[in-house]
Structure formats: C-alpha cells, structure tokens
Amino acid sequence: MELLDPSLYAPSGANDGAVLLALRDPATGALAFPRTPYGIGGSGTPAEAADAVELSGRGEVLLCVTVHQPLSPGMKVPLLVARLRLEEGIVLDGILEGTEEPAPGTKVRAVLVPEEREGGPVLACRFRVAA
Amino acid sequence: MSGLASMRPVRVVGIGMHPYQFPTETPYVTLGLTALRQALGDAGLSWPDVTFAAIGTGAIGMAAGRVMLRHIGSTGLEVMQIENASASGSSAFRSACLMVASGQHEIALALGVDKFGTAQRAAHKDGIPRLTPAAEIPAVKFALMARAWRDRYGLTREDMARVAVKNHGNAARNPYAQFRKPRTLEQVLNSNPVAGDLTSLQCTPRGEGAAAVIVASEEAIRRHGLDRGRAIRVLSSVSSSEHAVADEGWSLVEMVQRSGLSALAAAGVGMEEIDIIELHDAFTIEEIVYAEALGLCPLGEGAAQLREGKWDIGGGGCAVNPSGGLLGMGHPIGPTGAGQVAEIVRQLRGEAEGRQHPGARTALAHMIGLGSVAVGHVLQRD
C-alpha cells in the first residue's frame, strides 16, 4: 500500500512503525521537520547543505484536544490532535489514534495505518499510545 | 518597528462603519462607500480633500480600492491596497498614519472592507505536506492553547466562557456589531462544541463589513477648520512579525507581548494609563492570554480579573473589547483593525452611546494576523 505523504515519513521496518523524515543543520545540529526543499528556517541553511535524517517517531504528549466538528473538507470527527515532543527534542503536531484524550506525558509512537482516500486505501502516519 | 514620536503629529478626524453582518449579496462597493461617506461626514471633509487611501482587504481581489473609489470620484489620489491577513485594516491605518506623519500627505484614509468566502491562504500553496493539516486550523490551534493554559494556570471552561459573555454583552450595545444578543454563561458553555473546550459562541463568526478612518495633520485640521476637540491623537504605530522561540514556547504570545510593549513604549505611556484595549479575540482564550501578555495583569490572573468584572465597561479598570471584539462585533478580516480604531475613537470622544467606558482617555488597538504578524497603535484624547 502506498504512503499518503512519502515526503514526511517512511516505514521503520518494525511492524507498522514509522520514522519521520527531517533535516539536520550540520553546523548546529538543529533539526527541522518536515524535510522541505526550502531548508532549515531557524538558521536559513539551504536544504542542499543540510543532512537528511530520520526521527524515531517516539515521543510524549504535551497537549491533546478533541476536534468535534469537521472543520475542513473530509475531516472525520471526533479527531484527536496532539502536540508532541519527540525523543530527539523536536515539537510537532500529530493525529492520535482513538478517541480517548491521553494525559500529558503519555508516551506515543508513530505508526502507519490504512486510510480510505479517493483512489483507494493509503498508509497514513498516526501516533499510538505506546504499550 | 517605529513609533510616531519623531514625526509630525497625526490625528483621527473621521470614522465610519458599515455594520458587520453575515454574508449577503451586497457588493463590497456598497459596504466600503457606506463607511467612507460616514467618515467624511464625521470629519466634515469632502472626498477631494483626501489625497491618500490605504485599502485593507483579504478577500476582495486586485485593485479593490480603485474599483470602489471611482464611484465617489476619481480625484487622482494615491491608492494602495494592503493585505496583512487579519491585520489588514490595522496595517492600512498604520500606512495612513505614516503618510501624514512623514509629510507625504495632509489627509489620508484607511478603509477596510471584505466579503467572506474568496480569500486564499498562502500556507496552502507552500508545497509542503502537513502531518496534521487539522492543527493549522485556527480553532484547533487555539484549542491547544486553551489546553496549555488549563494545564499551566488552571484556566477553566467557565473562565474562557466569561470572555464570550462579556464581549457578546458589549456587542449587544454596539449598532455596528454582527451579534446583537447578550449571552449567558450557560448559553456559551452549552453551544456546539468545536474543538477542545471551545464552543461555537467562543469562536468569531464569519462575515462582511467595512470600516473607514480618516487621519490628518495639524495643518490640515487648521486649514479645513475641523473640530480639534474630537480629533484623537495617534501616539504610536508599530508592526512586527513572529520571532522563533524555544520549541515549547508560544511564539505568538511572545510576539503579542513584544509588539504591545513596543507600542506603549513608543507612545511614552504605561499599561496603567490604558483605559481601553481592543485586541484580537477570535477565540475566547486569546483575550485572556493576550491581555496578560500585554501586561494588563500578571500571568495567570486574567481569569480572576474577568470574574471580578475588571475588564467590563465601567468595571473600574481597563475595558477590554468594549466593541464586542471579534467574538461579538465580528471579524470580517479587512475591516477588523480599522474597526478597532473607529471604536476606540468613539470611546475616547465620549460618543459610544450605550457602551461608553467612563473617563476613557488613552487606548491601545492591538491586532494580530495569520503568519503571524502584529500591529499596535496607541491613541489618546487631549
């Protein structure tokens, strides 16, 4: 099955796990996600001068809310949107599996889950509460 | 960023509004010219007296100003169109002020006008896929902010809902407001859930409208015999955008704080002198967070101030969003920032019938826009 956004993530090789595709500034070690063609915004380093790296996809919940209304076309609700801090220190927003809001500090990992789209099912990146 | 202290004095001499309303078939030209004619009448000026016009709009399209203004007269004036997201009207006002302050023009117009539904966001065209497009939606972004403030400062659902109660109550007394009904705490809390703890009455409505503000130099006021007693001085004008902050910080809040304090410093006034603040309350949580960031009260004490009625009209302190704010008065984008200034001028003149904040002399208009940008103005009556 194809990935919904192959520029953002890839299979980790372990079951349904995913890694996130990022850039690292070789001078400062600063990370940037997603891996854009424009480079690292914080330092202005162009993408071709940055290192392509993979992030583990493991992290913890900082904040989480339930979206109750379909606020954009095709959005299925209820939807859990969370702000996460990955092990590598980077903070990003992701969609959590399920409908129960986890408490701040809950450990999560990135997984690839089938999602129906026009043209057939694809694998989308979601975050699952870690066992 | 710059204040106006080192430049010629600038005063607001005329204000006009087309009431904010839910989307209609009314052409934007009708909305804009209604506000403009009202502002000219308020100032006692004729259209040919105005030599510069900044048109703030987010959705109308290319050359909105010329297409509209030719119907009141093609006088050869300088016209500039300004899009700065929600701060478009604020930036139009800043441009008009700077044109007069710098001596480029004697009388300048800032006019915000918008219709709902045709705006496009550049963020949707940057070619970058999102892990979570939902997190880019303002209601979700501010629901996350509300959750952070709940976790850090114990902010409750009721605390946030009180912002909506206050602002809908103010809007009910404002003839230019989109919402004209007072709401109870129960009504706000029981309205449709949107995201997190935000309910529909805690979110700004979609709409349309127009706001016009005319500014003039001292020389123009004298030459045209305008009523100086009703001319409100613009003490400062600042504009900036977000700084990067540490990952867990809120760069938006840092920007609000920095730009607000900069506007006050440039005006040479302290927050304790501010009688009125009009600020960006598209979602209830914003009013509390931004008022704290601007220094109206210590961090984490906004909810208590709201409960005690200190931000009310006539509450004994600084009235926050006496117009009804974006929640109650509405947020048609292009006009919103100019509408804040119009409300403040009405209040500082003592002409805000039915919602007058007693003794108001100095006020802060503070607006943010998607991106994010911030624009702040301090105004004062003599």
Reported CATH architecture of the largest domain in chain B: 3-Layer(aba) Sandwich
The counted number of beta strands of chain A is 9
Low-confidence stretches of chain B: none
Number of domains of chain B: 2
What share of residues of chain B is helical?
A: 25-40%
Domain Thiolase N-terminal (chain B): 25-181
Protein name (chain B): Acetyl-CoA acetyltransferase
Domain Thiolase C-terminal (chain B): 241-372
Keywords (chain B): Transferase
Written account of the structure:
The complex is a heterodimer of chains A (131) and B (382). The mean pLDDT of chain A is 94. Chain A is globular and about 40 Å long. Chain A has strands spanning 9-11, 18-24, 31-32, 51-55, 58-67, 79-86, 91-96, 107-117, 120-129. Helices cover 0% and strands 47% of the residues of chain A. Chain A contains no helices and nine strands. In chain A, a hairpin with a 2-residue loop joins strand 8 and strand 9. Chain A has one domain. Chain A is mainly beta. A five-stranded antiparallel β-sheet of chain A has the order 7-6-5-8-9, with no helix packed on it. In chain A, strands 1, 2, 3 and 4 form a four-stranded antiparallel β-sheet that branches. With 382 residues, chain B is α/β, with parallel strands linked by helices. Chain B contains twelve helices and twelve strands. Chain B has helices at residues 28-43, 64-69, 88-101, 138-153, 157-171, 185-190, 218-223, 251-267, 284-293, 302-307, 325-328, 336-349; strands at residues 10-21, 52-56, 78-82, 107-114, 193-195, 198-199, 208-217, 232-241, 276-278, 319-320, 362-369, 373-380. Classes of the chains: A mainly beta (131), B alpha/beta (382). Chain A binds chain B through residues 5, 7-9, 20, 34, 36-38, 41-42, 62-69, 71-72, 75, 79, 81, 83, 85, 89-95, 104, 125, and chain B through 127-135, 137, 139-140, 143-144, 146-148, 151, 192-197, 244, 247-248.
